[in-house]
Amino acid sequence: MATVDVIIPVYNEEHVLAQSVATLREFLKSNVDKQWKIIIADNASTDRTWEVAQGLAQEHPDVAAVHIDQKGRGRALRKVWLESDSDIVSYMDVDLSTDLGAFPKLIDAIDKEGYHIAIGSRLMRDSKTKRSFKRELTSRGYNFLIKAMFFNSWHDAQCGFKAVSRQAVQELVPLIQNQEWFFDTELLLLAGRKGLRIKEIPVAWVEDPDTRVNIVKTVREDIAGLLRLRFRPVPRTRKLA
User: SS3 letters for the chain?
Assistant: First the structure.
């Protein structure tokens, strides 16, 4: 039986963390026939998030908590994914904006269908999203820019709903330079250059009005990252099965 780690990166989420973990635990128990574990990755929170995370880990044997001294979603995923010994690692946003019904499809894409990476997409024909016009325009514009520069086949780089095989993690994550929001895009572009198989799954997604994303800062970071990758050679390494 495949083993699965589900990582929830958090920063100052004391108000929603316990309820989100409770919802996720109930879903996984009923819908995922794998050995799974939830790992809360606290990114240097300044509220009671770390205290709440530790309490949940003590209360539930299928929950663990890891503290990272610096902010950055990519930094949290790098640490937890590289230290994991599970067959499949994944992550989702703590607000559970993405409908959990798509999660088993992510895992099965890797465990049963042979993909190296599976990603949720808010921009496919069958996706269902509810978000502001500004966020929709920014997301579509960003992903259009990626396609124009790299000719990739997938539609949505930044959806916080992904799963990766352990072999792909060991192959790709050490090469990723960005430690924040661009981490996802860099992961996928490196995977594409190396010929790894990526499956994209349409999801239902509802925007969280309490989002902490600084759009201007993130756009600048993303454009800088795209330009860096456009002209950066990828080291040759072994080919994954």
Answer: CCEEEEEEEECCCCCCHHHHHHHHHHHHHHHCCCEEEEEEEEECCCCCHHHHHHHHHHHCCCEEEEEECCCCHHHHHHHHHHHCCCCEEEEECCCCCECHHHHHHHHHHHHCCCCCEEEEECCCCCCEEECCHHHHHHHHHHHHHHHHHHCCCCCCCCCCEEEEEHHHHHHHHHHCCCCCCCHHHHHHHHHHHCCCCEEEEECEEECCCCCCCCHHHHHHHHHHHHHHHHCCCCCCCCCCC
